[in-house]
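One-letter codes give the sequence; the integers encode the fold. A sample entry reads:
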Amino acid sequence: MLSSVLSPLVPVVLCIALGFAIARIGWVRASAIADLSNIVFLVLTPALLFRTMGQTRVQELDFTPVALYFATAMLVFAATLLREGWSVAGAARALAHTFGNTVMIGVPFIGLVYGEQGLVALFTLISLHSLVLLTAATLVFELVQARAEQGQPGAVARSRGQTLWRAARNSVLHPVPLPILAGLVFAQTGLPLPGVLDQALALLGRAVGPTALLLVGVSLAYTRIGQNWRAALRIAAVKLLAMPLFLGALAWALGLSGGAIAVMLVTAALPVGANVLLFTQRYGAMQDEVSSAIAISTALALLTLPVMLALAQLLRG
């Protein structure tokens, strides 16, 4: 069992370590990270997402595991707000506790461990991941700001409905959910992809795993943790351990099992996603702490993921 848990993790570790090494010796500069990220997020990942979901019928999808994931995430989100208070810092930490790196690490890792069926379960989650979590965090941020602006002279009244609609729209019109939804719509037509296009998408899709993992290593090489390591470590502990353990306990209590449930548990154990940093930068709060949390959780995930994989094996039934 140990070899079955560790074997898919070895290529992940090697790719991340190689990316770290080539950055350290200067083959890839920090200024190139944004361009490499654009290749992964805007070209390679949409090709993989569209091709995979373009062969999947909606009636074949099981939304029970996704519902379990979001129930867990929203409970952790709410618990964080209760502990931290209704504030910008509380919203940022709540999002960091629940928003994982489902694309750059999740896609190659789940693909290695669970194959095509695992990816379908993951993509079903990803299609709603940003929409649900980023919209919830946006609403909290906007409500906090609206409360802070009350009573200030010259303050402009904002429509919370418009704010929520804009957040939901931007979460869908995004290079990750959009090709998933487009692929599902295409699949319902029953038409096959033209052979040349299918081969091109397959070629691009196969490049997602190694390129994304190399980029994780490069990013780690240029990340400075600094004085925020204690707070970042607390965030990492919640994201890597508390959230997946809570999901596993909830699945056990509800009598849920199977491959898709196992995928949800492993996905819940992924490190903090980069979108959390982009989100905090947008609102000008908690950037240093979140940046450190992304780096620390990514590094520690190499130690915690084998444990969560073993736990997930118990849920496969």
Q: What stands out?
A: DSSP finds 14 helices and no strands in the chain.
